[in-house]
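TOPIC: backbone geometry
CONTENTS: sequence, structure tokens:
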Amino acid sequence: SDDLKNSVSKEDFEKLKNISTSGSDHSLYNIITFENGEMLLVKLYQIEATSEYKVENVMKVPEEFKALFDEN
């Protein structure tokens, strides 16, 4: 996004290239943040035939990891 443009330096990006391989896998996650500060990490998967998304797993985010997902 424009807001995060240049947030990763070229040097950091080069380091990421060093860990990549020909095969990979990815997962789709979403964070739900409630007004009381609690957070849920929701893992989704897509049904390719219908392009629908289903919930695969839901986890409460521990207090010590909330800062990783805080957008403020």
